[in-house]
Amino acid sequence: MLSKRIIPCLDVRDGRLTKGVKFKGNVDIGDPVDMARFYSDEGADELVFYDITASSEDRGIMLRVVEEVASKTFIPFSVGGGIRNVADMRAVLLAGAEKISVNSAAVRTPEIISQGAAAFGSQCIVVGMDVLKVDTSQSIPSGYEVVIHGGRTPTGLDALAWAGKVQELGAGEICLNSIDADGTKEGYELTLTRLISEAVSIPVIASGGAGKPEHLADALNQGLASAALVASIVHFGEYSIRGIKDILADQGIKVRQVW
Amino acid sequence: MLAILDYEAGNQTSVRRALDFLGIPCSITADPDVLLGAAGVIFPGVGAAGQAMEELHSKGLDRVLGEVVRTGKPLLGICVGCQILLDYSAENDTSTLGILSGECRRFDPSWTDESGRNLIIPHMGWNGFQRKKECSLLDNVPDEAEFYFVHSYFPVPAPELVLATTFYGREFASLFGRPGLWATQFHPEKSGRPGLTLLANFYAYCNEVAHAQ
């Protein structure tokens, strides 16, 4: 039986973690490679790196990080941020990532999804969607709009229609981030998560809003997500991945408990 | 030394990184002499059966693989490298290597998971296994361990070859073969410690065979 995945998300700028990731009295917190090992040892099922490097000249730093992560941890991981074309995808995959995540670039040029899927297989292509709740309208019948640039720019795309479109174009997975829930620690946006999960036949990763393990349980049960992304809930040592998994398992959710 | 068969499979460098981490000497190669001179061969694979067969055929590597098996050199096929050891794959309606008897079929999206929902295809993520026969590759791998899978087609080898099974919509062979000729549908190189243990077990077996000769 397939396990539900718990996926820590690490934001990297110029080769270092951006958020002040803090643990209760252990571990150097700035190095993405150390953190990847730490989370892998803790039972993370997968990792996500978002490269928020400002300049494209520094892209090489990220590729070195990817290579080093791939040489020291042996679980799947994806890399997103600043990927504009198939050549960028190839560079990241060759450096050792399993998957590439595209977000704004996919909105601007949807063909990047089909091109990536054709070149590397759908299983490599994750489409990240940032979604904002809006009033329903003729162009946004679901009441959920896709936004880009970290939530600042509306796109006029209906999230439900966009999810169907990216699947059709060959996306292998959707990482669904609610801008409304993000950072609140009050739980994932369950209505949105379920809406999209029911509409597509590819895995959906719930993102944004996790504040306690029960929130993950809700996203996986009620939201029908295949996986849950976590950031501050684990980065600040409030919960461990192992601890979260124990709680999920107690609630009857199938998670990987031996690694 | 282990040889990793070079036919531009997507995961060949991941396999090399895992072996490097374990301190196992290895080389990614398409050179028949190196392949036949190695203690064992790993046959990786990501992608489609049709394309993989074409690639092997155009480089004459299908014959080299046959030779590896005939000379009794240990071989480990991974994912697509596991599937195309069989006779046939429904993927691209491809006649495959026929080194182990059986075929490869597609998961049917009308099959359901434990909660009654239609299967998501590909089968992607971590899943467990059940031992069906003694297999030294699984030495020191806990029964509750899980492996990482990414595939839309699943192997159906001859029943006597099944070593371990996994459930996704139905029970399928996730590890099959016989001593010295093994195939894993999952990716040991991406399965954390249990996967690394399996690779180390393979190397240990290769060394035993090499020393016995």
TrEMBL record, chain A:
InterPro entries linked: Aldolase_TIM (IPR013785), His_biosynth (IPR006062), HisF (IPR004651), IGPS_HisA/HisF (IPR050064), RibuloseP-bd_barrel (IPR011060)
CDD domains associated with the record: HisF
GO biological process, one term: L-histidine biosynthetic process
Pathway in which the depicted protein is active: Amino-acid biosynthesis; L-histidine biosynthesis; L-histidine from 5-phospho-alpha-D-ribose 1-diphosphate: step 5/9
Name of a matching Pfam family: His_biosynth
Gene3D superfamilies on file: Aldolase class I
Broad class of enzyme this protein falls into: lyase
Cellular-component GO terms for this entry: cytoplasm
Catalyzed reaction equations: 5-[(5-phospho-1-deoxy-D-ribulos-1-ylimino)methylamino]-1-(5-phospho-beta-D-ribosyl)imidazole-4-carboxamide + L-glutamine = D-erythro-1-(imidazol-4-yl)glycerol 3-phosphate + 5-amino-1-(5-phospho-beta-D-ribosyl)imidazole-4-carboxamide + L-glutamate + H(+)
Domain of life: Bacteria
Catalytic residues in the record: D11, D130
Keywords: Amino-acid biosynthesis, Cytoplasm, Histidine biosynthesis, Lyase
Record's subcellular location: Cytoplasm
Enzyme nomenclature, EC number: 4.3.2.10
GO molecular function: imidazoleglycerol-phosphate synthase activity; lyase activity
Subunit and interaction comment: Heterodimer of HisH and HisF.
Function, in words: IGPS catalyzes the conversion of PRFAR and glutamine to IGP, AICAR and glutamate. The HisF subunit catalyzes the cyclization activity that produces IGP and AICAR from PRFAR using the ammonia provided by the HisH subunit.
Family: Belongs to the HisA/HisF family.
UniProt-listed NCBIfam families: hisF (TIGR00735)
Name under which the protein is recorded: Imidazole glycerol phosphate synthase subunit HisF
Naturally occurring in which organism (per UniProt): Desulfonatronum thiosulfatophilum
Automatic annotation (TrEMBL), chain B:
Annotated metabolic or biological route of this protein: Amino-acid biosynthesis; L-histidine biosynthesis; L-histidine from 5-phospho-alpha-D-ribose 1-diphosphate: step 5/9
One annotated GO biological process: L-histidine biosynthetic process
Bilayer-spanning residue ranges: none
GO molecular function: glutaminase activity; imidazoleglycerol-phosphate synthase activity; lyase activity
GO cellular component: cytoplasm
Keyword Aminoacyl-tRNA synthetase annotated: no
Keyword Cytoplasm in record: yes
Chemical reaction(s) catalysed: 5-[(5-phospho-1-deoxy-D-ribulos-1-ylimino)methylamino]-1-(5-phospho-beta-D-ribosyl)imidazole-4-carboxamide + L-glutamine = D-erythro-1-(imidazol-4-yl)glycerol 3-phosphate + 5-amino-1-(5-phospho-beta-D-ribosyl)imidazole-4-carboxamide + L-glutamate + H(+); L-glutamine + H2O = L-glutamate + NH4(+)
Catalytic residue list: C79, H187, E189
Glutamine amidotransferase domain boundaries: 5-203
Keywords: Amino-acid biosynthesis, Cytoplasm, Glutamine amidotransferase, Histidine biosynthesis, Hydrolase, Lyase
UniProt subunit comment: Heterodimer of HisH and HisF.
PANTHER family from the UniProt entry: IMIDAZOLE GLYCEROL PHOSPHATE SYNTHASE SUBUNIT HISH (PTHR42701:SF1)
Function statement: IGPS catalyzes the conversion of PRFAR and glutamine to IGP, AICAR and glutamate. The HisH subunit catalyzes the hydrolysis of glutamine to glutamate and ammonia as part of the synthesis of IGP and AICAR. The resulting ammonia molecule is channeled to the active site of HisF.
Protein name: Imidazole glycerol phosphate synthase subunit HisH
Organism encoding this protein: Desulfonatronum thiosulfatophilum
